[in-house]
Write a structure and sequence with these properties.
- The protein is an all-alpha fold and 410 residues long.
- The chain has helices at 3-34, 37-53, 55-64, 67-92, 96-123, 129-157, 160-185, 200-212, 216-244, 249-272, 277-297, 301-329, 335-347, 349-360, 366-387.
- It has one domain (3-182, 200-391): MFS general substrate transporter like domains (Growth Hormone, Chain: A), CATH 1.20.1250.20.
- Helix 3 packs antiparallel against helix 13 (335-347) and helix 14 packs antiparallel against helix 15.
- The longest helix is centred in the N-terminal third of the chain and has 32 residues, at 3-34.
């Protein structure tokens, strides 16, 4: 792999590592402070909802300017947000600063995510897209593996605000790696001719694509169903492990790390072995559904761990299925704006799951909420199949994004 491509993936790794540290801190610190799973769910909703509601704006932004500029701004401003949050805590105190800075960083993470997603097909034009996605997600998952370990280790030495300072440094490192890649590769973003115009027009175009492009609506519905279980898992994992099953913080970090390692193993398999797209989607969806049920009904912590591993391990396999199919469906010149709206629709069920946890998980009902949301995922998936929404009845013939010209017609 060329040095500039390594730098591209390194920036992804540093960014993900810092983001994962923040994701690890919020539910754990909130639960330790309040000793209530309901507050962990509410904190997750406050943290996650801004991440997803801004995706349409982020997508339109990537069609109005170079996604490289968008990506670098995302990394720099996340570092600044961490510094402001630390300063605010030092002046006023309270864990609200941790939740607020995490919400701001989450919003900027969405900006960076869309920018990278738009860049990938253009940066790696000669590679099989599933392979590129696998290696990109491996870089992310290494950050996910090390994030809980690093956060748990640092929390054993320092208060949470110092750990946030480490995250700020990692965001600056991600921006440095992006700058090195940009200069070493001399990459030039081909303009798509969307320099001006009303900001609501891109959203209208994207929604029109969701409704009219064969297969795109099906992908949105399936991803929204899957993200119900991902959301409830993220919102309750700290409370389930350290509260319901009474295990220490180190065991919680172990569970998070084990899940990330399982994901890397699955991603390496996808990168090296050609697996039919439909098989990727079916196997991963069923595994996540089964994992949610197992995590909710098991009275043993090891049963919960097994369910957790199924959920987070196969989440990225399902993501590769979704991303590879939609990349072949969405026209290149509308990719950014459509991607932003699609990702928002896909992921709004994650903060919804956190809100449901906050509303209904009191009085020892946390496991029941996990089971109910998992059954909701299965029901939504079954409805999609029965209705026949998507490419099963109509085929769409759209060239892969990396093969399309930026100026193709509407």
């Amino acid at each position: 792999m060329r040095a500039q491509h390594q730098a591209f993936f390194a920036s992804l790794f540093f960014s993900r590592l810092a983001d994962q540290i923040l994701l690890f801190l919020v539910p754990l610190v909130v639960f330790q402070t309040t000793q209530k799973a309901t507050w962990s769910g509410i904190a997750f909703f406050i943290e996650a909802f801004p991440r997803y509601i801004v995706f349409p704006v982020c997508g339109a932004l990537c069609d109005h300017m170079s996604p490289v500029t968008v990506l670098r701004a995302s990394q720099r401003f996340r570092a600044i947000a961490c510094a402001v949050g630390i300063a605010g805590f030092a002046i006023a105190g309270g864990i609200g600063w941790l939740i607020a800075l995490s919400a701001v960083c989450g919003t900027l993470t969405s900006q960076g995510l869309v920018a990278r997603e738009v860049l990938l097909p253009q940066v790696f034009t000669s590679e099989r897209f599933e392979k590129v996605l696998s290696y990109a997600q491996i870089a992310e998952q290494v950050g996910v593996v090390l994030g809980p370990m690093l956060a748990g280790l640092l929390l054993g030495w320092w208060r949470w605000e110092y750990v946030v300072g480490v995250a700020a440094g990692l965001f600056f490192a991600a921006d440095g790696a992006t700058l090195f890649w940009q200069r070493a590769s001399a990459f030039e973003w081909p303009p798509h001719g969307h320099g001006g115009g009303a900001w609501l027009a891109p959203v209208k175009t994207a929604l029109d694509h969701v409704v009219r492009l064969p297969g795109l609506g099906r992908l949105v519905a399936l991803a929204a169903a899957e993200n119900l279980v991902i959301g409830v898992t993220l919102a309750t994992s700290a409370a389930m492990v350290t509260g319901l099953h009474r295990r220490p913080d180190a065991f919680y970090a172990f569970v998070q790390t084990a899940g990330a390692i399982a994901t890397i193993v699955i991603l390496l398999l996808i990168a090296r072995v050609r697996i039919p797209r439909k098989a990727l989607g079916l196997v991963s969806f069923l595994a996540i559904f089964a994992g949610g049920l197992l995590a909710g009904v098991s009275p043993s912590v090891w049963g919960y761990v097994a369910g957790f591993l199924l959920i987070v391990g196969f989440d990225k396999m399902f993501s590769i299925y979704i991303r590879s199919v939609r990349q072949a469906i969405i026209p290149a010149k509308d990719y950014g704006k459509t991607l932003g709206v699609v990702i928002m629709l896909n992921n709004l069920t994650q903060p919804l799951a956190g809100l449901l946890v906050g509303m209904f998980s009191g009085n020892g009902r946390m496991s029941a909420v996990v089971v109910a949301i998992s059954l909701g995922m299965g029901a939504l998936g079954l409805i999609v199949v029965l209705v026949g929404l998507g490419p099963g009845r109509r085929r769409v013939h759209v060239a892969p994004l990396s093969k399309q010209t930026p100026d193709s017609a509407d």
